[in-house]
Hints:
The chain is of the alpha+beta class. The chain is about 55% helix and about 10% strand. The chain is built from 13 helices and 4 strands. A 4-stranded antiparallel β-sheet has the order 2-3-1-4, with helices on both faces. Helix 2 packs across helix 5, helix 3 runs antiparallel to helix 4 (about 80-90) and helix 10 crosses helix 11 (about 285-300).
Amino acid sequence: MNKRWMxxxxxxxxxxxxxxxxxxxxxxxxxxxxxxxxEQPIYxxxxxxLEQIHNVLTKIENGSAYTREDYEDSVIKKDVDRTxxxxxxxxxxxxxxxxxxxxxxxxxxxxxxxxxxxxxYKKFLHSSEEMKDWDRTELKMWSLEKFDATKFFDxxxxxxxxVDSSLVLSDEEGQKSDLINxxxxxxxxxxxxxLSSYNNLLDQKVKFGVxxxxxxxxxxxxxxxxxxxxxxxxxxxxxxxxxxxxxxxxDDGVLLVINHAHVVSYNTFALSYLVIYxxxxxxxxxxxxxxxxxxxxxxxxxxxxxxxxxxxRGQMIKKIYPLDHFIGE
Length: 329
């Protein structure tokens, strides 16, 4: 079992984003008429935007990105292909691929934190002083004919200076940073606990398996009194989470459970579970998922069960990591 939670290399981030794009596959919908969508879900466009911008910012900060001199040299030599490559490389900073991607990226920062690179870039873009003379979202600005190299590379220089000067956090940012670091420490502890349990079982030659599955629950995010309402209340979601905790705790075949929750859409929550189980109790990860699918339906009742979706993520993980053995025995 390889470590995938912690890392800073390009290879780590490549695998990380590959997993996240598969995990968050929902596309950001286009609102039509009176349809309502919340800003909280993480859409596929969110992950794609984070990946593209993170890759460029990493190269800018480590000095491997194209420079003003590279651009000017390509123009002097009339190397159109290289000039276009340079423009296209930085183009992702403008989030011009689609309105959905730009919106998903902007909304992400209202509720979540990725890392210091993305955080500083977003903070920089919010500075009207820095953005008053450059419209990054104007698509034609990134064409060979309209690209204003002086304006862009001046913008880039200001961004680099901003990064250097923003290493000292304000009190408010420091509090946010402390909270984020606490969450990271918590997740790291969960990961180390998982890794330790996994390795201990190997040492003890215990036959065990690993299963990963999601439970999708429709919820309006409000407490609803009407029992016939299509979507469950947030109270139901909390009760369901506690119910699953009790089920896992009382299951002699379950050795360890790691879980988290996230908002899928305006009316849907996802509870994700990673379960290490005894092979003598469940002879396959599919059998464990089948068992907890039944337990889910038992809790929800016949009428509500039809709105619940349980997704076995085993095949998704095997597709992403075909050379690794993680799911199953």
